[in-house]
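User: I'm writing a short methods note and want a consistent example. For ABC transporter permease, I'll paste the sequence; you return only the structure tokens, no commentary, since I'll be parsing the reply automatically.
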Amino acid sequence: MRGLLHSLQIAFGAFGMGLVIGTLGAYGKLYGGAIVRDLTEIYTTLVRAIPELVLILLLYYAGTDLINRVLEGMGYQRVDINGLVAGIVVLGFVQGAYATEVLRGAIKSIPQGEVEAARAYGMSPTLMMRRITLPAMLPHALPGLANLWLISTKDTALLAVVGFSELTLETRQAAGATKAYMLFYVAAGALYLFITLFSNVILARVEQWARRGMPSVKEAR
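Assistant:
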């Protein structure tokens, strides 16, 4: 249960960080200058091209070493970075690339007339994003974001390779100590399944709320 709590903390933190990065990345790709668009494209391409396990190892070890080298260069002592924070940052960085593409596609699905009408009313970019873009894109983005959330909960298992005590590592240690491999690994699988099923119920209700007033798929047909 301690491992489950750590996994959920990382999943929530990484998903939230990914949403922030994804929102900025989507706007950078769509409305940024040439340099911003190129940098965002490089970021999303590299993250989606490199296996997540390799990225986690690279960011976790090389990233913490780089931070300490910078601190030493500035005259400060080396610091031990909290494993929970490092896990959130590493997975959030990965989630951000995928969230960028999900949100970019959702924004592009908004009818152009709504955006032009908002500009005609003289709305500032911030006000237009809050009143027009975000509410209109949410129904289109939710299926992709829901998938990213489920991926986030499962990607926490990859942090076991760097020694962070999330659900998978705690399960492996308990199974190794008791030799009850079947019991503990089945229990861990059941916990992951519970998270997925519970998340699906919540996400379905959120999607239903976001699509209120919109025709259902059957009605559209």
